[in-house]
Amino acid sequence: MPAASGGRREGTVDDAAIGWGGLALSLILVGVAVGLSAWQGLRLERDMVWAAGRALVQLLAVGYVLLYIVDDDTPVAFAWAWVVVMLLVASLTARRRAPEVPGITLLTLAATSGSALLSLFVVFGLGVYPMVGRAIVPIAGMMIGNSIGSIVVASRRILGELADRRPEVEARLALGQPWQQASKPFVRSALRTALTSQIESTKAVGLVFLPGAMTGLILAGADPVDAVLVQAAIMYLILGCVATNVVVIGLGLTRRLFTPDHRLVRLARSST
Amino acid sequence: MATPPLFELADVSLEVDGTRILDHVDLTIASGGITVLVGPSGAGKSTLLRLLDRLEVPTSGEVRFRGERVADLDPLTLRRQVGMVFQTPAPFPGTVRDNLLVADPGASADDLVEALRAARLDAAFLDRPADDLSGGEAQRMCLARTLVTRPDVLLMDEPTSALDPDARRRLERTARRLAGDGHDMVWVTHDLEQAGRLADDLVVLVAGRVADEEQRARYLARRDDELDDDDDGVDAGAEDDARTGDARPVDEGTGARGERRPAGGHRG
Question: What is the pTM of this model?
Answer without folding.
Answer: 0.78
